[in-house]
Amino acid sequence: MGAPQFIGKDPKLVDIKANNTGAIALVKNPHLHEQSKHIDISYHHIRDLEAKKRITITYIPTDQMIANSFTKPLERTKFEGFKHMIGLVDDGIEKRTRF
């Protein structure tokens, strides 16, 4: 990771990654407002932030969400994939066996 990935990006803009297409649609589609009046007014703040271009909401599949590696049990192949995503590398030390 590091600073180069942020060069040329607006530091005030927050990019939210989500895997819930329904939630993304509620934020991005103002025509759904009539159908979502039952949602508490405090939750509409995110819609306002997106309209003011303070945040962006981007869809990302669940299996690509890095945070999931910290919240869910993973099989070996997924663990290795997430390990690579966050930049962890093998240290070259011989792996120990479990006792």
TrEMBL record:
<protein>
    <submittedName>
        <fullName>Copia protein</fullName>
    </submittedName>
</protein>
